[in-house]
Amino acid sequence: MSHTTSHEGVFLSSLLESSLELLDGARCRIQEVWAMDGENPSVYAITVKSKHALKHLQWANIDLEKNPSTGRMILRCWSEEEIDWPQHALIALRRDLLDQQIVDLNGAKVVRVNDVYLANVGTALHAVAVDISVAGLIRRLGIERPVRKILGGKLVPKFIPWGEIQSFIPDSVSICLSSSADRLHTLHPAELADIVEALGNCQRQAVMDALGKDGAAEVLEEMEPKAQKEILSHMEVGKAADVLERMPSNDVADILDRLRPDKAELILVEMEKNISDEVRDLMEYPDSVVGSLMSTAFRCFRADDTVEHVLAEMRRQQPDPDEIYSLFVVDAQEHLTAMVPLPALVISALGQKLSDIQGSNRMHKVMDTDPIIALVELVSKYSLLSVPVVDVDQKLVGTVVVDDVVYEMLKAPRRRWRAG
Questions:
Q1: Could you say which of 165, 171, 217, 398 would form a disulfide bridge with 246 (CB–CB 3.0 to 4.6 Å)?
Q2: Is pLDDT of 208 > 90?
Q3: pLDDT confidence of residue 3
Q4: Is the per-residue pLDDT at 195 higher than 60?
Q5: Strands of 159-161's sheet in order across
Q6: Is 137 within 8 Å of 170 (Cβ atoms)?
């Protein structure tokens, strides 16, 4: 039975730089440490290099001591019988963790693993935390003592407990260091977008898969254009279509415009026809006109609809908040005739008709072919939250909310909206 005389625990780097004494007295280097996947994984085996051959030895057959004077590990093997690999997953602590990026869920950021802390729990050695500090990197380089002397004190590690991080290992099966990926959903999509953008491609795909289709759509919407393009370029076509269907059509049009035409077309074919048709129409607009910004998700009613009816419909449909800054009134031919701001609707009597709400006939609108600068000036002059967009026949075809206008101004103040 393996035992450790030190109860302080041991760093993975210390094990890897130590040698193992075999039964014949020969010494060999430890190449890898294997642990059972799960909460606080227990060390199961080690891989050593002996006489130019790799051997896999069960950890239960290894004695580990710590030299009190030097602090170095002393490892002895009392059985060299090679192990049978278990059917369940094992984590290669060196390969799968050291220098890998992990998601620190508490800090909502991506960090690098510089070392792994192993502690004795009962008769087994368990991985209990990762060290993300510079001290961990210095320890691995073998210069901890001289650096500590220079700094005049002890280098302090920075631990993240195993259960408080989420790790996705590239080029391998995703290894969840916490019990599940559920905690990813506790972060704001903007925070998750920052995290995903900082990861490598394989890790990005693993995180997006863990989020599910709805969560992936929310996060993709928050990403920078370059990251959106990279993720969708590597995503399977059907999966990409499922995610994009959950996003506003105008955002989807912008994203697909950045992809290779052949990949964009494959995704459009996989999407539901009514959604792909909307996206195709939006992609026809030049970047410099209002139609390239507008959303086709809006709420319109008839002039004789009552406030009570409209409120009941909104409760039933449960639209996104940015779809109901204002409600639009159209006639039988879909011509825009009035616009009712949400505050005016809420304070009106339930039996009042939309056409009778004060100020509903005062509205500012733009055409889908107007230059974006005209929209910017209109929003700025009248402090509008949303603006209806009509076509040449004055039919309502979309709306632009102030968030999209501000984002457009920040994203491309010279190249795009001044282009008109």
A1: 217
A2: no
A3: 46
A4: yes
A5: 10-11, 115-121, 124-131, 159-161
A6: no
What are the tokens at 397?
């075809």
Proportion of the chain in helix, strand, coil states, percent, rounded to 5: 40, 25, 35
Tell me whether the CATH fold assigned to 185-284 matches the one assigned to 300-411.
Answer: no
Q: What is the amino acid identity at position 280? A: R
The answer to whether the beta carbons of residues 15 and 73 sit under 8 Å apart is yes
CATH for 300-411, among 3.40.50.620, 2.60.120.430, 3.40.50.150, 3.10.580.10?
A: 3.10.580.10
Second CATH level (architecture) for the domain 10-93:
Roll (2.30)
How are beta strands 366-367 and 386-390 bridged, if at all? Answer: parallel
Residue ranges of E strands in 235-316: 300-301
Distance, CA of 389 to CA of 400 (rounded, Å): 7
Q: What's residue 167's pLDDT?
A: 62
Amino acid occupying residue 163: G
- Region of residue 318 (phi > 0: left; psi between -120 and 50: alpha; otherwise: beta): left
CATH number of the domain located at residue range(s) 185-284 in this protein: 1.25.60.10
- The number of CA neighbours under 13 Å toward the Cβ of 336 is 28
Domain ranges, ordered by start, for the chain: 10-93, 185-284, 300-411
Over 90: is that where the pLDDT of 243 sits?
Answer: yes
Check: CB of residue 169 under 8 Å from CB of residue 175.
yes
**Residue 190, SS3?**
helix
Structure tokens at 95: 């390969």
**Amino acid sitting at position 301:** F
